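Tutorial handout. Part one gives the primary structure; part two gives the three-dimensional structure as tokens.
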Amino acid sequence: MQNQRKAYLLALGTVLLWSTVASAFKLSLRFLRPVQLLLYSSLVSMLVLAAVLAVQGRLRLAFSYSARQYRRSLLLGFLNPFLYYLVLFKAYDLLPAQEAQPLNYTWAITLALLSIPLLGQRIQIADIAGGVVSYCGVVTIFTHGNPFALRSSDPLGVALALGSTVIWALYWIYNTRDDRDPVAGLFLNFLFGFPLVLIYCVLFSDLRVPDVRGLLGAAYVGVFEMGIAFVLWLSALRLSENTAKVGNLIFLSPFLSLVLIHFLVGEKILAATFVGLVLVVAGLLVQRLGARSLEAQGA
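Part two.
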């Protein structure tokens, strides 16, 4: 019972941190270009993850893997942090945070759909139903409640936000074959991905030191979105009697995020955004309940 209480506290802490990142992205992008935000935040995250491993006495573990596993880190590092956050930050740069955040949140549905051809999983009724409900929410959000108009504030931004879900889903699918320690693996992904970010920044942006407010925002993103939140979430899952007990708490995050977007970023939250987000989360719940039902039948 004591461990379960700790699991809930860690999970709630993670949810609170993840709820702040949409606002942090948007505020930071007022002072940084997307690739600059990625450069500084991924550097900070890499250092934070190295520090976590060092404190746990497991830093040597990151340098004890095979050449094959380091090649995997190169692929995974290309997907995350390089490609995923480059696309996501550009989406946030183009869209209001209240649109980019729920669109990106559909990655779990994308993961379920891509797992069918890539992992050989069978499609379930719950996957179809959940996808239909969630993407009705997506349409509601990017058309501002007028689905027949099919107009959005920025079509490219919408495409990038949805494209980021494909990249993130691919990242987790390839991660299913990774048997390394999760924190060490993530550290190595950032270690191998950072040079790609640096090269891209040199070629397509610049390395000038930006406004200190941008640097502080990038540091926040690197510490909490890319680093500490991941470690806290892993700890919560490890301590919980059942992963579902803490897993469902994640659905609080997008709604808390809307509140923070309103008060911190200053966006007026549209009714269509809230309705669309409810549909997105409802679809995710349908998909998750279907997956649990299938597991129960298998058991």
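Part three, for discussion. The chain is about 80% helix and 0% strand. The mean pLDDT is 87.
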